[in-house]
Specification:
Elements lengths: L2 H10 L5 E5 L3 H10 L15 E8 L2 E8 L12 E7 L8 E7 L16 E7 L2 E7 L10 H10 L6 H4 L16 H13 L5 H10 L3 H13 L6 H27 L1
Antiparallel strand pairs: 1-3, 2-3, 4-5, 6-7
Helix pairs in contact: 2-6, 5-8, 6-7, 6-8
Length: 258
């Protein structure tokens, strides 16, 4: 891993995400994501605050991406990317267009998808004109609609049937989680694909994606529960925490205006 060369390249293109390295384990990638912005034991990325980092697992393994903050701030990653794609197939009914939600990372290299360059395009399906979305990924890897559809099925927009059942409200609904919405979505998506996922893994995942505060809260709760906490329970906990903070905020605002 030549971090000096990576840092130099990233500095020459501030605000642009640059591929840095593939790690042997999720934990070591998560550690790098934490240390790059601090330039901690990674002097190439100094001074502290000069770089941002994230990691995402690709076919190659946990991949670290960095960008220089020089001239920034630059737009943060969205939690998801929603696009209209053409669909056809017996299980989807007639030919048409559906809006699907996928993660904003290239599935090949882990680089940012072209979530900020989505353009409508008119295509002809079964002799009818329909509007779908097109986007170019900065890394040059093209997304194929069939793969995007398959990915959207594999990682559906977060819904937690366990916590949303009964009681007439939906604590598992990420939109209730306020500031922790993206963190809750991440956990619920991962938990959908991984049965019996533990809160410890949820915390590692959050760190990997830069949700430091949410990761700290989950770990504190994990200690309070003496290690007995599932990933889904941690998502529920963050949702309750996020909802409570939102109400606290609105109370403060009312008091200010009173
Ligand atoms: Zn790519």
């Amino acid at each position: 891993m030549d971090h000096a060369a990576v840092a130099e390249e990233a500095r020459s293109r501030p605000g642009t995400w640059v591929f840095a390295a593939v790690y042997a384990s999720l934990a070591s990638a998560a550690s790098a994501v934490r240390r790059v912005p601090l330039a901690e034991r990674m002097p190439s990325y100094g001074p502290a605050g000069a770089f941002e980092a994230y990691a995402v697992t690709t076919v190659e393994g946990p991949s670290l991406w960095v960008r220089s903050t020089g001239g920034g701030p630059y737009p943060p990653f969205p939690a998801r990317m929603s696009v209209r794609i053409p669909v056809a197939g017996p299980d989807l009914g007639e030919v048409g267009v559906i809006t699907v939600s996928v993660l904003p990372y290239c599935q090949t290299c882990g680089g940012p998808r072209g979530w900020d360059r989505v353009q409508p395009a008119e295509v002809i399906l079964q002799e009818a004109a329909v509007v779908v979305d097109r986007w170019a990924n900065p890394c040059g890897h093209d997304d194929v609609y069939a793969d995007v559809l398959e990915e959207a099925r594999r990682t559906p927009p977060a819904v937690d049937p366990e916590t949303s059942r009964g009681r007439g409200h939906h604590p598992g609904d990420p939109s209730r989680a306020g500031a922790f919405q993206a963190a809750v979505e991440l956990i619920l998506q991962a938990a959908t694909n991984q049965r019996g996922m533990h809160a410890k893994q949820a915390a590692a995942l959050l760190r990997l994606h830069g949700h430091t505060e949410a990761a700290d809260l989950v770990e504190a709760q994990l200690r309070a529960e003496h290690g007995h906490l599932s990933a889904k329970q941690s998502a529920h906990f963050l949702t309750v925490e996020g909802t409570a903070r939102r109400s606290a905020l609105s109370t403060t605002r009312q008091e200010t205006h009173a």
